[in-house]
Amino acid sequence: MTFAGNLTNNSVIKNYKSVLLFSNILTITILLFFILFNYNNSPKIVYVDNIKLFDNFNMTKELKNSGEKEFNLKKMAVDSLYTKLQSPEISPSQKKLVMQQFVQQKEELEQFNQYFAAEQSSKIWARIKSYASEFSKENKYQLIIGSENKINVLFADEKIDVTNDLLTYINKKYEGLK
Question: Which InterPro entries does its entry note (predicted)?
Fold first, then answer.
């Protein structure tokens, strides 16, 4: 082989090495972008403690207070009738009438308690879900799992517990601060 032949082979080898180096760098760069892109677009899943969220939501506290006032008024009326029933001065005919009123008002009190709890809980959860949807969009969460003391969740890293963050958000939203 001549000197010109060796020079051509060396040039080809250098060009080949340059192309190989460039293609390796390009491949690694593409892989890094792919990994970073997929990492940032991976689903963001978090969880909250439903009980803590519900009990500490300001709307729950307000509705509970208003419900307790109404409940206490109705309970006082039932207690008053019970006291009348215990009175030795009440005639048998009056006792029968008071007993009917007592039974009716006691049933109404129980119905009020059941209805109020169910109705208000439904309203509260609807509001929480609405606010949680907005919270999810703002924080780019794709899924918020609600669990009662982690009973339905077999494992969850504490780092993804956003109960306090969501609670702060919904209370500010409810108070009109956000």
Answer: Chaperone_Skp, Skp_dom_sf
Residues 38 and 49 reside in one and the same domain: no
| SS3 label, residue 45 | strand
The Cα 32–Cα 18 span in angstroms is 21
Does residue 38 share a domain with residue 113? no
SS3 content of the chain, % helix, strand, coil (to 5): 75, 5, 15
- pTM comes to 0.65
User: Reduced to 3 states, what is the DSSP secondary structure of residue 174?
Assistant: helix
Same domain, yes or no: 15 and 76: no
Range of the domain at 24: 1-42
Please give the Cα distance from 173 to 138 (Å, whole number): 13
- Contact predicate 161/145, CB 8 Å: no
Look-up of token digits 């080949």: 16
What is the distance between the alpha carbons of residues 161 and 165, in angstroms, rounded to a whole number? 9
Residue 77, CB-side half-sphere exposure with 13 Å CA sphere: 14
Spatial distance between the Cα atoms of 178 and 174, rounded to a whole number of angstroms: 8
- pLDDT tens column, 95-135: 899 999 999 999 999 999 889 889 999 999 999 999 999 99
% of residues, the chain, pLDDT over 70: 78
Count of domains for the chain: 2
